């Protein structure tokens, strides 16, 4: 029996073959149909995204990531009575923000190029979603509302997420699927992937990261060196934990709508 992860990898491989077939197709008059051309292929890292919460496909030379916005893991923010509810540990019911996941529609979509490149200048991150995690939930930066995360940090669950003011999202290293390791965290809005605090190429914390937490090396998803981000291995002041991504974006960011 084929495992779910191998099935996803097979689907990605088939998507790559389909891309080649479509890009070589002509219309009934023998002319190239530009609207149907798909170039590029899905990166192997997309096999790590939860297929119950995300739908990922090629569209021309871009890849589209559609998400329910809901985390695939347990959290107290599902609310009592939900099968994924767990009692709060690092926070309390009193300190949690009032909204619960089933009360909010977090569906969103991100479209990025299949071949992201370093831009000529960086772009600062903004409030709201700046990336999509492998769990399906959003990634936010180190700001909450119009200020630093400090005051809102008390509402974060065990995996560094909460709701406020909109969809469930992570500010801190999402311990539900990456904990001081090399695991894939998700994709940032400029099309570059972000990994945990360790580097697959060396097996330890990378020492050549730029100001955004990025560098160029191989990963568990590719044998060719490519640019990607890591969660920077520096504790955030008030939480004793690690911020997922502050920025700036090293590529040109797209909107997450």
TrEMBL record:
It comes from the Bacteria. Keywords: Signal. Transmembrane segments: none annotated. Residues 111-201 form the YHYH domain. Residues 1-25 form the signal peptide. This is YHYH domain-containing protein.
